[in-house]
Amino acid sequence: MATENKNLSEYDKNTIPNAKDFRFGIVVSEWNDVITEGLYNGAFDALIDCDVPAQQIIRWNVPGSFELIYGAKKMLQTQNVDAVIVIGCVIQGETKHFDFVCEGVTQGIKDLNVQTDIPVIFCVLTDNNMQQSIDRSGGAHGNKGTEAAIAAIKMAYIRQQASISHPFNQPLLTSGALQIEDSPRKIENE
Ligand SMILES: Nc1c(NC[C@H](O)[C@H](O)[C@H](O)CO)[nH]c(=O)[nH]c1=O
Ligand SMILES: CC(=O)[C@@H](O)COP(=O)(O)O
């Protein structure tokens, strides 16, 4: 189902785990900030609506979507959070730069989800034009930031339940994977 056939802002609170004790990091790209601010507001408002105290939501800004990778890495390395949401808006320009930024940030955020124990939620619009971004940041198709917040709560809950049911969960990765230095959180493959 494409976004045009669903409203990104709709969620059923009855299907969402109790989030009042969870802490969330949100890393926001400053590129296309008219859009990213709308996405942030959607995410923040949804977390508050799901009973997350405002003081348990940490926001950092980065210059562009490509920097979301490093920002999220340092967020999860240094802050006590249960999930991180990265927010960006990449809009096609005249050149192939769009392709490389989108692929780079996608792969980078994927790598963080594989290499670390903290879920990182991908709230990065990759649109053909500004209207598509407007439609997905509080416009005709709802707000992808809202969708990302709900995903963050659900993934934080999965992580919490997994640690309860499998307190000594085994490393997932062989050696040689990306090492995130100086992290207070144990890398899965160690
Ligand atoms: N064109 C867009 C960018 N480009 C900037 C890159 O994300 C990055 O900051 C730069 O290459 C320096 O490393 N970023 C967006 O978020 N959105 C765009 O449309
Ligand atoms: C995604 C981008 O970096 C892009 O918007 C930059 O525009 P251009 O390709 O015209 O340089």
TrEMBL record:
GO molecular function, one term: 6,7-dimethyl-8-ribityllumazine synthase activity
Similarity comment: family membership: Belongs to the DMRL synthase family.
Binding residues annotated for (2S)-2-hydroxy-3-oxobutyl phosphate, in chain numbering: E94, T95, R136
Name the record gives this protein: 6,7-dimethyl-8-ribityllumazine synthase
Superkingdom of the source species: Bacteria
Keyword list, A-Z: Riboflavin biosynthesis, Transferase
Alphabetized InterPro entries for the sequence: LS, LS/RS, LS/RS_sf
Pathway(s) it belongs to: Cofactor biosynthesis; riboflavin biosynthesis; riboflavin from 2-hydroxy-3-oxobutyl phosphate and 5-amino-6-(D-ribitylamino)uracil: step 1/2
Gene that produces this protein: ribH
NCBIfam families: lumazine-synth
Active site: H97
UniProt: 5-amino-6-(D-ribitylamino)uracil binding residues: W31, S65, F66, E67, C89, V90, I91, F122
Keyword hit for Hydrolase: no
Enzyme Commission number(s): 2.5.1.78
Function: Catalyzes the formation of 6,7-dimethyl-8-ribityllumazine by condensation of 5-amino-6-(D-ribitylamino)uracil with 3,4-dihydroxy-2-butanone 4-phosphate. This is the penultimate step in the biosynthesis of riboflavin.
Catalytic activity: (2S)-2-hydroxy-3-oxobutyl phosphate + 5-amino-6-(D-ribitylamino)uracil = 6,7-dimethyl-8-(1-D-ribityl)lumazine + phosphate + 2 H2O + H(+)
